[in-house]
Design a protein that fits this description.
The complex is a heterodimer. By secondary structure, chain A is mainly α. Helix content of chain A is 77%, strand content 1%.
C-alpha cells in the first residue's frame, strides 16, 4: 500500500510544478525575472497584484468572465433538466437521432464556428454582450449537461415518478420538489462541468466581445503581446484565474467522486 | 421500459431551439462560404465544389492533418494507460481521497490560454524552471522556439499535464463502483493482480473508459488555444495543428471559401473517427 502511493504523489508533484512556477513568478519583480533564474522570489512583491486590482481594464476582465460563465451555467442546466428528463423517461419520434445530434455539437471545433458566430451575433445585435458569450457556450455545454443529467436520472427508478402522480402531485410540483432534489448531485456535477468548459474557453469568448464584455483571457493575450515582457503581471493574472476553479471544485468534491460513476461522465 | 409520449418534445424544445440557433445557422453560413468565392463587399460567386477539391489536394492540409493525427495518437497512448495506472494506485477511502481528486482536477479548470502561458513561462530556456533545469543542470540543449522536436515534446507533455486527470477521474469512478465482494472472491480463487485487473477492474471501467477516450479524442483533435499560445504553431509549421491552420486561413488570410471547405472536411473527419471509436468500443456489448 505504501509503495503504491508513490505514483499519485509523483503525479500530483508533476501537476503542481508548473502551477508553483506561475505563482512564484507572480511575486517577482520584472527586474528579478529578467536578471536570471531564482527558485524562490528574492524580492517578494505584491505589485503585480496591486496593478490588477486597481486597473479597471484588468479587474473588469474577471468580472466579465464570471458574469457570462454564470449566465451560461444557469441557462444550460435550466433547459437541460426537462430535456434530460424527456430522454430518460420517454420514447418519442426521433429521440435517438436528436440525442446523437446534440452530442455531435460537442465535436465541432470552435475554430470552425468563430467567424460565423461573429456574424450571427452581430446580426442579432448582441455582439460584445455577456449574453452573446453565454449563449454561444451553450453550443457545447447544453449537450454535455443533457448527457450528464440523463445519466443521473437513469439511476432514479421510474416508480418514484409513478408514486408521486398517484399521490396527486402535478408534474411541475413533482419535478421541482421531489425529482430535482433527488438528483441534486447530478445537477451539481452538470453545473460544475458547464462552469468549467465556459470558464476555460477562449476562442469564442474573444471572438464575440470587443470592450464591454471582454473576458480576462482576452485581456491577458493583449497584455502578453503589447506590453512586451511583463511576465510577472501575466503570471499574477494567470494565478488569479485559477482561484475560481479551485473554489468551485472544492464545493463539488464529494459529488465528483460519487457523481462520475452515477452519471455516465 | 420507457413509455411512448410525443409530448416529450415540449421538454426538449428549449434545448433544441438554443442549440439549433448556435449550430445550424453558423453551420449553414459555413456551407454557404464553402461553395462560393468572394472579393469582399458581400458579392459572391458560385464556385461549386472547387474549394473542397483544392483543400483535399493541398499538401498544406495533408501536413496539418498528419500532425493532428500524430498529436492525438501520442496523447491518447500516453494519457489512457497513465490515467489507469494512477487511478489504480489511488486510495479508495479516507482523508486523502478528496485531496487527490481536487488537486488532480485543478489543471482542467485553468483557462486554456493560461495553460499555454504557464507552460511558456515554465519552459523558458534561461528563466523557466524546466528550461533552466534541462539546459543548465542536465546540460541538455532545450529551446522549443528553435527545435521542432523540443516543441513537440513540450506540447505533448503539456497536454498530458492538462488532461490525464480526466482519464484518472473517470477510471477512478469506475473502480470505486466495484463491490468489495468481487475482490474477496478473487482472493479466495487465488487470482493474481493481473487477473484481478483484467477480469474485474477493466470490465468495470469499460463504459467510463469509452467516454474518456471519446472525450480525449474529440478535444485533442479540436485543440487550438494551448499550442497556439505556447508555440504559435512553430518553429516553422512544425506544431501547426488543424485548428491553428484553419484559423490562420480564415482569420489571418481571410480566405473564407477554402477555410469553410476545410472546416466541413475537418468536422466530417472528427465525426467519422468518433463514430468509429464508439462502434468499435461498444461492439462487444451488443453481442
Amino acid at each position: 500500500m505504501q509503495k503504491r502511493s508513490i505514483i499519485p504523489i509523483v503525479y500530483i508533484l508533476f501537476l503542481m510544478l508548473p502551477i508553483y512556477w506561475l505563482v512564484a513568478m507572480s511575486f517577482k519583480t520584472t527586474n528579478e525575472i529578467l536578471s536570471g533564474f531564482s527558485l524562490f522570489p528574492q524580492t517578494f512583491t505584491l505589485e503585480n497584484y496591486v496593478t490588477i486590482f486597481t486597473d479597471p481594464s484588468w479587474y473588469w476582465g474577471y468580472i466579465n468572465s464570471i458574469i457570462y460563465v454564470s449566465i451560461n451555467t444557469v441557462i444550460s442546466v435550466a433547459v437541460a433538466l426537462p430535456a434530460a428528463y424527456a430522454f430518460s423517461r420517454y420514447r418519442f419520434l426521433g429521440d435517438k437521432q436528436l440525442f446523437f445530434w446534440l452530442l455531435t455539437n460537442r465535436m465541432a471545433p470552435a475554430a470552425v464556428f468563430a467567424l460565423p458566430f461573429f456574424q450571427l451575433y452581430s446580426a442579432v445585435g448582441i455582439f460584445d454582450t455577456h449574453l452573446a458569450v453565454a449563449l454561444a457556450h451553450c453550443l457545447f455545454n447544453i449537450p454535455l449537461a443533457v448527457w450528464i443529467l440523463e445519466g443521473f436520472m437513469g439511476g432514479i427508478p421510474k416508480e418514484l415518478d409513478e408514486t408521486a402522480y398517484v399521490d396527486g402531485y402535478s408534474f411541475p410540483r413533482f419535478f421541482g420538489t421531489i425529482f430535482i432534489p433527488s438528483i441534486k448531485a447530478g445537477v451539481g456535477v452538470a453545473a460544475f462541468f458547464c462552469f468549467m468548459f465556459s470558464w476555460v474557453e477562449l476562442l469564442l469568448a474573444k471572438t464575440l466581445t470587443a470592450v464591454a464584455a471582454k473576458p480576462i483571457a482576452a485581456t491577458m493575450t493583449k497584455t502578453a503581446s503589447s506590453a512586451g515582457y511583463e511576465l510577472g503581471l501575466l503570471a499574477a493574472a494567470g494565478t488569479l484565474t485559477i482561484i475560481p476553479g479551485a473554489i468551485v471544485i472544492w464545493f463539488v468534491r464529494n459529488y465528483i467522486a460519487k457523481g462520475f460513476a452515477m452519471g455516465r461522465v | 421500459m420507457k413509455t411512448e409520449n410525443q409530448k416529450a418534445w415540449f421538454f426538449v424544445l428549449p434545448v433544441l431551439v438554443l442549440v439549433a440557433f448556435n449550430a445550424l445557422i453558423p453551420m449553414m453560413t459555413v456551407v454557404n462560404y464553402s461553395v462560393q468565392e468572394t472579393f469582399g463587399d458581400n458579392v459572391f460567386f458560385w464556385q461549386g465544389l472547387d474549394w473542397f477539391e483544392q483543400i483535399l489536394r493541398s499538401e498544406r492540409f495533408h501536413a496539418a492533418l498528419g500532425r493532428q493525427f500524430l498529436f492525438t495518437f501520442l496523447i491518447l497512448i500516453i494519457e489512457v494507460p497513465l490515467g489507469i495506472i494512477i487511478a489504480l494506485s489511488m486510495p479508495r477511502k479516507g482523508f486523502w481521497v478528496p485531496v487527490c481528486l481536487v488537486t488532480m482536477a485543478l489543471p482542467m479548470l485553468i483557462p486554456w490560454n493560461v495553460v499555454g502561458a504557464m507552460w511558456n513561462i515554465f519552459t523558458l530556456p534561461d528563466i523557466g524552471l524546466l528550461g533552466y533545469f534541462l539546459n543548465h543542470v542536465l546540460g541538455i540543449s532545450y529551446d522549443m522556439t528553435q527545435n521542432p522536436l523540443a516543441a513537440w515534446v513540450t506540447i505533448v507533455t503539456m497536454d498530458v499535464w492538462h488532461w490525464t486527470s480526466l482519464v484518472v477521474l473517470l477510471s477512478y469512478a469506475g473502480l470505486v463502483s466495484i463491490p468489495d465482494a468481487y475482490y474477496q472472491a478473487a482472493k479466495i480463487d487465488g487470482a493474481s493482480n493481473w487477473a484481478v485487473f483484467r477480469f474485474i477492474q477493466l470490465p468495470k471501467m469499460k463504459t467510463v473508459l469509452t467516454i474518456a477516450i471519446l472525450l480525449r479524442f474529440m478535444d485533442s483533435f479540436n485543440i487550438y488555444t494551448e499550442p497556439f499560445v505556447l508555440t504559435g504553431g512553430g518553429p516553422g509549421n512544425s506544431t501547426t495543428l488543424l485548428s491553428i491552420d484553419l484559423v490562420k486561413i480564415a482569420l489571418g488570410q481571410f480566405d473564407l471559401g477554402p477555410a469553410a471547405a476545410m472546416s466541413l472536411i475537418y468536422f466530417a473527419i472528427t465525426l467519422l473517427v468518433s463514430w468509429l471509436f464508439y462502434t468499435l468500443m461498444t461492439k462487444d456489448d451488443l453481442n
